[in-house]
Design a protein that fits this description.
about 475 residues; alpha/beta; seven-stranded mixed β-sheet; about 20% strand; globular
Length: about 475
């Protein structure tokens, strides 16, 4: 692979690349090396971006469908052309294993490509309104119009694709957008800004600005933005909703995602997928597998195979294609994870696989006999830790999954159709994934949760619906 020298990367402010605000160093969490320096926008830069977004919306809302499509398709093409370079940059700034980084880059290209297609499919409807004699001769047309400037905040764990899930649908809908990418790894989205700048989008239609929390809070509360789209922790997300005023809010928050394995499942497949789902990107995924419920008749065999699989995982250099687990995001995350694991062990849990952290690397950890109210089980651990439980039957597993404040996605490993339908009926989650992990997501599907896991859905068509408003045109035909 090529080595990218440390450089000073400008931020993208109202259609211009500028070096303004406070210097920000981006370091590789695996090695501590300086990847690049960039800038953290302050209140002045945010105000400039906000004014530009308001002005640009007068133009973006009138862009033809093909113009929005062409801009998005251009970005998708550029991502594909630069895929290897983008993946390496993503790995170096985030610590994500290179295999996962390549997958994220491919998904980002798909996200922009799908948004380009959806830009041509923002349909309305004709509807009869003559439902009574008094309304004879009445009919209506409903069209969808862009909602206005969008404030968007994306997290560190998927710094490219989760940000793309905000920028791409906003462009498709005809909205302007100010994006706050994660300050820990903003470089890949600043590269995407170069591709956006090559299009014919109006100046100021997109700003990509790393910011500190107080500056981002100004954006949350600003009534000039008509929609807030936030992906991150539940505690922060619900606080933002309370501060967002009258604007529409979409929250994609956390979870303690569960999976069910019954006696009809393909155990080899289930074990392999659950090991991936629990430990990909060191468990720093909101739909990472955190709780696994296995019916009693196969529990012992599942545990044996799962432990064997987890022990074979490789921790190390994220740039090594053989690496399964890289570092966690920072020392604070490692310390919190270890505190929660130790708490569970002190309360009677046992570690089938585990150990002490080494720097930012936390070992893959498998716990059993965990108290249900231990933080490592009841809260979002966001770490390479998974809890195993045996249950009497499938119905008991559903009850355990639902006994949570979260409800993002659930994986159900079964080959029984009746149980599949029961899971869809009864599980209190935003998505049921049959014969795969809750960590699975493809970018065209509706994605989001219930309970403390958020409100609204992402996925291009569903995001565009949130970023547009229906408007009725009613006709009276004199008779």
């Amino acid at each position: 692979m090529t080595t990218v020298a440390a450089e000073s990367v400008p931020i993208y402010l109202a259609g211009e690349f500028v070096r303004a605000g406070t210097p920000l160093e981006i370091r590789n969490p695996a090695t501590g090396e300086l990847v690049a320096s960039t800038w953290q926008a302050g209140p002045d830069e945010l105000e400039h971006a906000t004014q530009a977004a308001v002005s640009a919306f007068a133009l973006t809302r009138r862009m033809a469908s093909y113009e929005r499509r062409d801009a998005l398709a251009h970005v998708a093409d550029r991502i594909v052309a630069d895929a290897d370079e983008l993946a390496e940059l993503l790995t170096r700034e985030s610590g994500k294993p290179i295999r996962d980084a390549r997958g994220e880059v491919a998904r980002a290209a798909l996200t922009f490509r799908t948004a380009a297609e959806e830009a041509l499919r923002i349909n309305g409807e004709w509807m009869p309104l003559d439902w009574t004699a008094a309304n004879r001769g009445r009919s209506g047309i409903v069209r969808r119009f862009p909602i206005g400037p969008v404030a968007a905040i994306s997290p560190f764990n998927f710094p490219l694709n989760l940000a793309a899930h905000k920028v791409a649908p906003a462009i498709a809908a005809g909205c302007s957008i100010v994006l706050k990418p994660p300050s820990k790894d903003p470089l890949v989205m600043l590269r995407i800004a170069q591709y956006l700048d090559e299009t014919h989008l109006p100046k100021g239609a997109v700003s990509i600005l790393p910011m500190d929390r107080p500056t981002g809070d100004r954006m949350v509360a600003d009534d000039r933005f008509k929609l807030l789209s936030f992906t991150g922790s539940p505690s922060v997300g619900w606080k933002m909703k309370a501060e967002a005023g009258k604007k529409k809010v979409v929250l994609e928050l956390g979870g303690n995602a569960g999976a069910i394995v019954d006696e009809t499942a393909d155990l080899d497949w289930a074990v392999a997928r659950l090991a991936t789902g629990a430990f990909a990107y060191a468990g720093q995924v909101c739909i990472s597998v955190q709780r696994i419920y296995v019916v009693a008749s196969i529990y012992a065999e599942f545990e044996r195979r799962f432990v064997e699989k987890v022990r074979a995982l490789k921790t190390g250099d994220p740039l090594d294609p053989a690496t399964d687990l890289g570092p966690m995001v920072d020392a604070k995350a490692v310390a919190r994870t270890h505190e929660w694991v130790q708490e569970a062990l002190q309360r009677g849990a046992r570690a089938l696989v585990g150990g002490d952290p080494e720097g930012l690397f936390y070992p893959p950890t498998v716990l059993v006999d965990v108290p249900k109210d231990a933080r490592v089980c009841g809260e979002e651990v966001f770490a390479p830790v998974v809890n195993l439980f045996g249950v009497a039957d499938f119905a008991a597993a559903i009850a355990e999954i639902n006994d949570s404040q979260f409800g993002l996605q659930c994986g159900v490993f079964t080959n029984d159709l009746e149980r599949t339908l029961l899971a869809h009926d009864e599980l209190e989650v935003g998505g049921v994934i049959v014969n795969d992990v809750p960590t699975w997501r493809t970018d065209a599907m509706p994605y989001g949760g219930v309970k403390d896991s958020g409100i609204g859905r992402e996925g291009l068509r569903w995001s565009i619906e949130d970023m547009t408003e229906p408007r009725l045109l009613a006709f009276a035909r004199p008779l």
